[in-house]
Hints:
Chains A, B: Keywords: ATP-binding, Lipid biosynthesis, Lipid metabolism, Lyase, Nucleotide-binding, Steroid biosynthesis, Steroid metabolism, Sterol biosynthesis, Sterol metabolism. Chain A is of the alpha+beta class. Chain A has nine helices and 16 strands.
Amino acid sequence: MTLYFASTTAPVNIATLKYWGKRDKDLNLPTNSSISVTLAQDDLRTLTSVCTGPELTDDKLVLNGKEESLASERTQNCLKDLRQLRKELENSDAKLPKFSEWKLTIVSENNFPTAAGLASSAAGFAALVVAIAKLYQLPQSLSEISKIARKGSGSACRSLFGGYVAWEMGNETDGSDSKAVEVAPMAHWPDMKAAILVVSASKKDTPSTSGMQLTVKTSDLFKERVRDVVPRRFEEMKKSIREKNWPLFAELTMKDSNSFHATCLDTFPPIFYMNDTSKKIIKLCHQINAFYNETVVAYTFDAGPNAVLYYLKENEHKLFAFIYRTFNKVSGWETKFSSDELAQFIKHFDTTVAKDLDFEIDDELCQGVSKVILTQVGPGPQPTDECLIDTATGLPK
Amino acid sequence: MTLYFASTTAPVNIATLKYWGKRDKDLNLPTNSSISVTLAQDDLRTLTSVCTGPELTDDKLVLNGKEESLASERTQNCLKDLRQLRKELENSDAKLPKFSEWKLTIVSENNFPTAAGLASSAAGFAALVVAIAKLYQLPQSLSEISKIARKGSGSACRSLFGGYVAWEMGNETDGSDSKAVEVAPMAHWPDMKAAILVVSASKKDTPSTSGMQLTVKTSDLFKERVRDVVPRRFEEMKKSIREKNWPLFAELTMKDSNSFHATCLDTFPPIFYMNDTSKKIIKLCHQINAFYNETVVAYTFDAGPNAVLYYLKENEHKLFAFIYRTFNKVSGWETKFSSDELAQFIKHFDTTVAKDLDFEIDDELCQGVSKVILTQVGPGPQPTDECLIDTATGLPK
């Protein structure tokens, strides 16, 4: 059996300037540019293996061990674009095998539970598109390829780069200039860390696609966000990253998360993603920054109640004195720290912080959080020797 | 002892187009016009008695049986303006007693617990200003007097009228054109009813004065609200009242509440007045309207978690099938309905509603609500024979 293989990993990214609103639903063209930080793949990544060969009879997708449909228009758009680029390559070199005409097997696995409510579609579509681009040996740049990932899931385009990434909204109606670009590589500002507080949600949230369409249609305040607020913030945030201006980056991140959720609330009927636990985490972050009279933490919330806290490595002990004290009953801390190190955070709180504290730590807040994920800025998609497909049969292992 | 007396009651009003933001803090001049419905005084009112006489030695204020300071600049501004108008009257007619030079005793009582978190300052300042204006026999119109009440508490100016009231923001820097006017009297649209769900709050909210100042200073979306959203809505809502267009009035009311809370969330640090219970009430209202495929209820939230539900008398049975079913464990229903009538709401739900319901009534939602207050549109300040001051001594009874 003649088979060709490729595998890649792709990261999760968490926006610091939010994508909310499509100007074209089919092409996933956004109403505003956005910015994100790519997270380390040790903690959160999708691994995707693909194979093709003349004897495969169907396109097949297996996600986390379960066969899934490839019929969605979004997935079909990605496959069509990739095969088209491969076709152009084959047209220019007759010796190349006709991958563009053969079926594909795609096998994909996350190293984190999808149940955690973390947007896995970005990493998933990024991995799918990069793996096939690699299999097809496409010569296009990552920014070019990001336009294909964008059609799968808007924010997926940002997962094609590591470090600090901008998705330029573009102006063209065909989406040809709506792509991801690197603002700065991970190595430019390697001390950016993230603590994700997974907040227990009682109900399913409004899906982001229908939610953002309703916002575009009904929110008056959204118009101002798109017209004035985000374009200004986009330039300011890129500058703050290039200059490693943490206080500015942090403030813009928090403000933009609030602005996004404000337009959700201004949607009719209103959309609520944050719950009372989310709000208490926001209050705690502002109290922590006020306590130190210094910005040590920046929160951001996607279309769900989970809090992503960004902070610099140098401020970890300051932040963790508070958040380990508050959330030590949940799991996740042990993945990065020994019990001795964790005890130090408590000690720091008890000996240094507690005496000057003018507010009480809310011990019940812990009950609204199910898990903490500790991670940091990371690289873009990585080649891997791991293959999820049996090289003899072309079937999932 | 020579003493002169006057007493009045004044109502609570609940805005349907929200006042949020001052352009002048000392004069309580708003950044936008607002609209409210005045509520019936059987359910919610302040009763204020005032007296003056040459032998009184101090200005004195007794609120709900407790002596309070009159030193606040806001109260002093009100007293100064009222004495100035009285002075002008005395100057034009030398026979008039010199009330403007004598001290005042002010005694005030609410017929509802302040603990309920219902803005009592509007009714309080309206009653204070109207009682003194009456004592002083001031010839000015209610709109003129409303400018004085406005200096005490912005929204107090709207409590000088019954029915449907607009507070025109005005343009002058001295506030001379920032006053309340009647949009329509109670009798124009007498079927407007209100159910107030008093939501249990665990913490004290951000005071509205400092909250709105922070919004003006930090929210980008607030600029759009003030510049474009509210001016448009102000005209639309007045029209909806004049035409008794309930679906439009209801939609504008809900949207404006959401818009106001969205700008609070866009404030930095963000301000949260609604909690998870408030949000669930919002969702329930939209579900109720969707169920009937007709607008039967409109929610609005002030600077706190309490929900005010407006509805038309003719839709009461439709609304109460849901809200009495959901909140029947809390007190307040018995003030307006017999147990037989209440049983009818349950029966209506069980026999007519339940079979077509595509969502579940959340029985836990009841736990977030402590009380229901049932009321309706009402008249403005009313003269009363009741006097809270001993006519012999000039002291509180």
